[in-house]
Amino acid sequence: MRISVDGPSVVFAMVAVVAHGSAFARSEACHPTSEKQISALFDRWNDSLKTGDPQKVVANYAPNSILLPTVSNKPRLTADEKLDYFKHFLENKPVGTIDFRDIMIECNTAIDSGLYTFKFADGSVVKARYTFTYAWNGHKWLITSHHSSKMPEGN
Question: Do the domain assignments include residue 133?
């Protein structure tokens, strides 16, 4: 859908913004959080990996989230697609550790980006970049997007 604005309608929109504050003002209350609480969300996700149960891993993701996984070329949009990915990913018992991170917190959203390492039961190791974005759903923090990619220069 394309909306065209010109002439008097633009002036009206500008007056409305000035009169009522930012056009993007939020009416929701911001859930208080800290870097420590956001970093603990990775631990929650990693602990769900350790269970070996893909349902528990997928429970960390918001219904309309996206997973761009480490060892698959296919974006995972639905819970079923995420379950399929984690069913195979969990077969070799991955355990992740954070090597470097940067956390940014906004009103009811947070971004945790950095580098992590996965160690697997067969002794293999995958170093990767990651970004988790989170949103507060009124009850708990959920992953809204998760991007992970192997380091391009190897280990």
Answer: yes
